[in-house]
Amino acid sequence: MVRALQPSIMSTNYDPVPERPLIILSNREPYEHVHRSAGVEVRYPAGGLVSALDPILRRTHGTWVAWASGSADGTVVDEFGRVAVPPGDPSYTLRRVWLSESDVEGFYLGFANSALWPLCHLFVSMVDIRRSDWESYERANRLFAGAVVQEAERVGGAPMIWVHDYHFALAAASIRPHLPDALIHQFWHIPFPPPDVFGILPLGVQDTILRGLLGNDLIEFQTDGFVCNFIDCVARALPAATIERDRNAIQFEGHRTRVGAFPISIDVGEWKRLSKLPHTVEVSETLRRRYAPNSRQLVVSVDRMDYTKGIARRLRALEHMWTDSPERRGTFTMLIVATPSRTDIPAYARLERDVLEEIEKLNDEFRTLDWTPIVLVHDNVDADLLAAVYRAADVCVVSSLQDGMNLVAKEFVACRDDGDGVLVLSRFTGAADELGSALLVNPFFIDAFADTLGVALDMPADERRRRMAVLRHCVENATIRDWLEAVIAAAESSRHAAQGDAAAL
Ligand code: ADQ
Q1: Pairing mode, if any, of strands 63-67 and 395-398?
Q2: What does the alpha-carbon distance between residue 434 and residue 427 come to, in Å, rounded to a whole number?
Q3: Could you tell me the distance, in angstroms and rounded to a whole number, from the CA of residue 339 to the centre of ligand 1?
Q4: Buried/exposed code over 362-393 (b: 16+ C-beta within 10 A; e: otherwise)
Q5: pTM for the whole thing?
Q6: What are the pLDDT digits (tens) for 4-53?
Q7: Which phi and psi (to 5°) does residue 448 adopt?
Q8: Which of 43, 408, 428, 475 to mutate to test ligand 1, by most ligand atoms within 8 A of the CB atom?
Q9: Which of ligand 1's atoms lies nearest the C-alpha of 398?
């Protein structure tokens, strides 16, 4: 039996539609089939990407190519690995690609998440480069690229191929020779490092990654800073490339690639709707009754359990505050919602263990008869519960040490139609470029971080409201739909421009 659970954060009211057949390539699949005791169940992975792209694929009857990560994925596909989705209302094709166990290790856990992820987030000492992982990364990129080519041949025409993220740095160059008329572009969700950090990669690897990315017609980054970093890396590692800095374009081996900043956003309308549901309001009131009774305040954070999110620094800032300012004890509860992530990688398993231990230690040290300082929800939670958490908070803390964008900051703002709440936001997030009315912090500077938390807790209501109004204006004027429109229009125009350039040669 296939049981379909409808995700709560998913809407279908998007207008932007590309002119060409659309094929998306991402590591995560939009629907995962898993074995459960009651039969086969469909699961929807958490995160904003699926909710942004699923509606556009439904409307265009497109194709999504992704890694088959579900235990029952193989039971529902045809001989080519295809299954029509969404379950119950099929309107597009999900093409699943299977990886061997050793490629899951080498490509996904290895090169993508133990080399590129820490490298791009400037965690230089955590970068782990192994020849076998790199070979596996190359192999997996070829495998996924081959599946994209097959799907393009099936749908015919000159498709728009939209590649996602650091898992597939080599895909565009691998696809292009087979589909010279396709429009290929890529969204890089995470930071792109400056040349000194990128230079840690072996020379051949640097060269192959940049050549791979330059197979795209357009590469979209989250911020102007990451665009500059990418251009600087190309200038250093590929001296034969011609860089048109004023036009954000790079010519290399007869092909022109545009680059640009396209800050991703959220489905603001959907988060607003969720935050107002009677059930959400009820849960939010329960949270306040339980953790913020009387004049006690509630501080929240929501992240994947990842070392880039600065969870350990956040705990140090709390310890600093409760040690140096004992009068703050008991005045607020810290609610940490942290979903387990990549637990097969030793660094993540260590982080999880350290964070759990530290929370226990701080609670033992500071708890009183009627106050537990830190409450941890160590689970993946539904979007409506997240909306309740955002709604219940006096303060939301985002303390990433590096973050491409950080959608949590935007979700918190979208859920505050009461116009209240303070956002404390790391200045090392892409979101800080847009959300300057948040209280910006440097999470490396523990004393100042603790001071800023104090400022947030003490902020007068009129200033909270003034800042939140500006934040809401920013978020409401740059939604996921605006992002999609901007990316699709820029991708189409990059192709037209490239064709124009070729004709002029
Ligand atoms: P992430 O590193 O996953 O994304 P983020 O942008 O914060 O970081 O997105 C996380 C998403 O997962 C949010 O939509 C959030 O609601 C959800 N989430 C977090 N904790 C959860 C929990 N406990 N239960 C359920 N859902 C939870 C990467 C980059 C970011 C970039 C995004 C999008 O690292 O910098 O903003 O992609 O491009």
Answers
A1: unpaired
A2: 11
A3: 10
A4: beeebeeeebebbbbeeeeeebbbbbbbbbbb
A5: 0.95
A6: 333 333 444 445 677 799 999 999 999 999 999 989 999 987 666 787 78
A7: -65, -35
A8: 408
A9: 7
